[in-house]
Amino acid sequence: MHVIVFGAGALGRIYGVRLAAAGVQVSFVVRPSRLAETYSFVVEQVNGEKRRDVIEQPRRIEQIPADATLLLLAVRFDQLDHLCQNQDDALAEALRAGPAVPLVVLTPVLPPQLAALEKAIGRRAVSAMPGVAGYVDDVDDRGVVRYWSTGIASTLLDDDASGPAHSTSRDALEVLARRLTNGGLPTRFERDVASLNAASTVSFFPLIASIDAGRGIDGVLQDKDLFETAVAAAKECEGLAKKLGKVAPWAHVLTRFVGPYTIKPGVALARRLAPETVRFVERHFGPKLHAQHLAMGESIRELGREQGLDMPQLDHLMQRLRAS
Predict the structure, then answer these.
(1) Which domains does the chain have, with CATH numbers?
(2) Record's InterPro entries (predicted)?
(3) pTM of the full predicted structure?
(4) How does 93-109 read in b/e, with b if 16+ C-beta sit within 10 Å?
């Protein structure tokens, strides 16, 4: 099995390094400017068994090789969103140039972006819900990737898009699921993962957008208008999410557990008991991914219009996000 990881950010490295540790041949498609880089890929698990896995000399490549068994797509949302306007961009051309093997999308994706991706490659893509969350623990994208993984949150592969039993596509994906599971990242097939992914992404978006607009959690807490707008926008987004599919339990955090009397003591407690978790939230959802958040917010707003939903608070949140 030769797994190609398209994108060597935090998520791509976590899955790629853990697969390599399980004995799978792994290569990483990177931008031409990064082909000459030689630094190792190191991933460290924060919780549980606290594993540390390393690829001393990761294979960086520019094109998908002919012997690829399957692809793991771990690019930013805004890169996928660009396919909606340009079916001939660099990402589409790179994917079309490779063999027609199963493509697993680890990136959070909404229906328009998934449809544009499938149109660009001429086949179905397999939506996935990662069972890990992590960040690069430095300022230049060359450091250790720190991540959380639990047995409760399995990586989910969309059963509907995985192909019929005993097909080449299904067989390759089942091998992938076994390798990940045996390697300590539980993975299973489940129906409607694409809609689960979309609904959860929509529901959770106001939280990450507000952290970006406030340039950190403290910025949200100190800005009454931003905080109240985020909470109100979360209620609007949850209404839209219910129309798209089932929402993962963790995605309800803003509307169910965040309020004017609980957020500040909750953050203070988290900073004391789990400071790295707070750092992760600010690094992973902060201004570093500003372009991704803008693209995601605009796509969510368009989905709301298609559903006939008035979302004034989300509009206001997007104004704050653009202004930041």
Answers:
(1) 2-191 (3.40.50.720), 195-323 (1.10.1040)
(2) KPR_N, NAD(P)-bd_dom_sf
(3) 0.91
(4) eebeebeebbbbbbbbb
